[in-house]
Specification:
Layout: E1 3-8, H1 12-30, E2 37-42, H2 45-54, H3 57-74, E3 78-81, H4 90-94, H5 104-114, E4 119-123, H6 126-130, H7 132-139, E5 144-146, H8 150-162, H9 171-186, E6 192-194, E7 212-214, H10 215-228
Parallel strand pairs: 1-2, 1-3, 4-5, 4-6, 6-7
Helix pairs in contact: 1-10, 2-3, 5-7, 5-10, 8-9
C-alpha cells in the first residue's frame, strides 16, 4: 500500500472529510481491518487566507511547497492538497518535489466524463470560479463550464469564508446556493461541481434533482484507490 501525503487545514473541517473518505474507501476495497496509510500536514488556514486576500500566491506556494517537501521526506508516495483553490499553485509545488501531486480538477474531470457530463455548473471560491487555473483543466477535457453572475459569485464566496470555513451551516445560505445552482441548470448545466471542499458540508445530492459532484469526495476516493493499486 502506498502512503498518501495530505496537505490539509484549508479548512480543517473539509480535511476531516478527506481522512474519513480515504479510510472508508480503503476498507471497502480491501475489507477486514484495513485502513489507509496517511501522512497529514495541516497548515494554519489564517496564514493561507491572508495570502489569497493579498494576492500573494508566491508566499502561499512557498508554504505549501515546504509542507509537500516534508511529506515527501517523511515517506509519502504522492501528494493530495485538500482544497480546490490552492491548486492554483500546484505547478510551483510540483517543481519542488519528486513525487506527484494528484490534481483535484483532473480527478473531477474524469468523474464528469464517466457520467457523460459535457456542460457543468461550477461553485467555489471567487478565485476558483473566475480564474483559469481550475476551469482550464475541465475545458481541456471537453467540458463547458458555467459560473454564477458576479453578485452571486460574491454570495457563494462569502458563505465559504464567513460560514463554512468556520463550521457554520445555515439553512438560509443553503437555499441561496440551491437557487444559484438551479439558475445555472436553467442555462443548460447537466450537473454541479462543488468546487470548494467545504461546500459538501452544505449541499448534498439529496438536495438537487441532477448530479452533484463533490470534489472532496471525488479527490479522496481517487487518492485511496491510487494508494492500493498494484
Amino acid at each position: 500500500m502506498k502512503t498518501i501525503g495530505l496537505i490539509g487545514g484549508m479548512s480543517w473541517e473539509s480535511t476531516v472529510t478527506y481522512y474519513k473518505v480515504v479510510n472508508e474507501t480503503v476498507k471497502k476495497e480491501l475489507g477486514g481491518l484495513h485502513s489507509a496509510k496517511v501522512l497529514l500536514y495541516s497548515v494554519d488556514f489564517s496564514e493561507i487566507e491572508k495570502c489569497q486576500a493579498d494576492g500573494d500566491w508566491d508566499k502561499s506556494a512557498a508554504i505549501l511547497s515546504a509542507a509537500a517537501k516534508n511529506l515527501e521526506i517523511a515517506g509519502a508516495d504522492f501528494i493530495v492538497i485538500c482544497t480546490n483553490t490552492m491548486h492554483k499553485v500546484v505547478p510551483q509545488i510540483q517543481s519542488n518535489i519528486a513525487i506527484p501531486v494528484i490534481h483535484i480538477a483532473e480527478a473531477t474531470a474524469d468523474e464528469l466524463k464517466y457520467h457523460n457530463i459535457t456542460k457543468v455548473a461550477l461553485l467555489g471560491t471567487k478565485y476558483t470560479m473566475t480564474q483559469d487555473f481550475y476551469k482550464d483543466r475541465l475545458i481541456n477535457a471537453g467540458i463547458t463550464v458555467l459560473i454564477p453572475e458576479e453578485e452571486e459569485i460574491e454570495i457563494v464566496n462569502d458563505v465559504i469564508y464567513n460560514e463554512l470555513c468556520l463550521g457554520i451551516i445555515s439553512e438560509a445560505s443553503k437555499n441561496k446556493y440551491l437557487s444559484i445552482i438551479r439558475g445555472l441548470a436553467e442555462q443548460g448545466a447537466q450537473g454541479v461541481i462543488l468546487g470548494c471542499t467545504e461546500i459538501g458540508l452544505l449541499i448534498q445530492q439529496k438536495d438537487l434533482e441532477f448530479p452533484v459532484f463533490d470534489t472532496a469526495q471525488i479527490h479522496a476516493v481517487r487518492a485511496a484507490k491510487l494508494s492500493i493499486e498494484e
